[in-house]
Automatic annotation (TrEMBL):
Annotated source species: Candidatus Viridilinea mediisalina
Name listed for the protein in its UniProt record: RsbT co-antagonist protein RsbRD N-terminal domain-containing protein
Highest taxon above the source species: Bacteria
Length: 141
């Protein structure tokens, strides 16, 4: 992972995190309305805002952390934890993998350089593999 490219991509994700996260959460709720049941909705939040806050923004921060520290294994640990905990609230493999795919689709709509675009594909593959492994492992236990 090229340090300069990773840093620039992390900056882009930081600058555009609110619209990116809101768009992904709106898409998720439209495709998976059952996610509303998994959210603890307070009076001040719409389901899309709450999902953005508790899931998509967390994913954005995880991606940024991986970029800044250049340690994809950080994602493996976090996604493994999520696969062990989130299904109790009705969050499935399909929900997680779709969120990852749509997050990176939306990220690629940002004004990125070719190197940054390539890095988003590399990260997406890693994150999807980590989700696959985490959910497979959690179902073996």
């Amino acid at each position: 992972m090229d340090t300069t490219t990773a840093s620039r991509l992390a900056d882009q994700l930081s600058q555009m995190h609110k619209p990116l996260c809101k768009h992904v959460s709106a898409r998720l709720l439209q495709a998976y309305p059952e996610l509303t049941q998994a959210l603890r909705i307070e009076e001040n939040y719409s389901p899309a805002d709450r999902l953005a806050q508790v899931a998509v923004e967390r994913l954005n921060e995880l991606v940024r952390t991986v970029l800044l520290f250049e340690l994809p294994s950080i994602a493996d640990n976090e996604l493994s934890w999520a696969a062990g905990v989130l299904p109790r609230s009705g969050v499935t493999y399909q929900h997680q993998s779709t969120m990852v795919r749509w997050f990176f689709e939306e990220a690629r709509r940002l004004n990125l350089t070719p190197a940054e675009l390539e890095l988003t594909y590399e990260l997406e593959r890693h994150f999807l593999d980590a989700v696959d492994q985490a959910y497979h492992k959690s179902h073996l236990n």
